[in-house]
Amino acid sequence: MSFAWLGLQGFGGVLAVVQREIVDRKQWMSLSEFAEEWALAQTLPGPNVVNLSVMFGGKHFGPTGALAAMSGLLLLPGLLMLAIVFTFQAFAHLPIVASALHGMGAAAAGMVMAAGWRFMPSIRQHPLGVVLASLFVIQSFVLVAWLHWPLAAVIAAVGGVACVLTWWRLQPQETP
Fold it and tell me: Residues 37, 52: contact at Cβ < 8 Å?
């Protein structure tokens, strides 16, 4: 039921909604655990929140839980989306509909930025440290927003380097 509720709230800025529900309200995960799970969900193919729901459901309730969480997340929003598509087709020619869509896009971008801001405390605990992790964030933003790199290339390049550096920092250091 919780994932069905998340699915109904999650149009556009789903990260902020999922984080608030799972971390703040339900307290099923700490902010650090959520950041780690969300990072893994982003690297898998498919929608991030669906990946997170499958991982969460599977971790706590096995295959049945994974299926239940995913179904809850997708069923009602899928039906609602079909209703919206048919309604939109009837009114798409109206200028107010285009304006409403632009406004929703701005609101969704703001929600994603707010959720990203809430992840900042978890960076202090990251093996790369605040400065290096922040440089990866800035580099990713510049590559996507200003240089228009494809997201897959940014994930492969920046994410790959960040993963290798994190792995290296987590290795036990040999003492002579």
Answer: yes
CB proximity list for 102: less than 8 A, separation 6 or greater: none
pLDDT by residue for the chain (176 residues), tens only, comes to 888 888 888 665 577 788 888 899 999 999 888 988 988 988 888 888 899 999 999 998 999 999 999 998 888 888 988 998 888 888 888 888 888 888 888 887 787 788 778 778 888 888 998 899 889 989 999 999 999 999 889 999 999 999 999 999 999 877 66
175 Rama class: left (phi>0) / alpha (psi -120 to 50) / beta: beta
Instruction: Say how many C-beta atoms besides its own lie within 10 A of residue 58's C-beta.
Output: 16
What single-letter DSSP state applies at residue 101? H
Look at residues 167, 141, 165, 135 and name the one whose alpha carbon lies nearest to residue 154: 141
> CB under 8 Å to 3, separation ≥6 — which residues?
53, 57, 68, 69, 70, 72, 73
pTM, two decimal places: 0.55
Going by C-beta distance under 8 Å and a sequence separation of 6 or more, which residues neighbour residue 79? none
The amino acid present at 138, given as its one-letter code, is: I
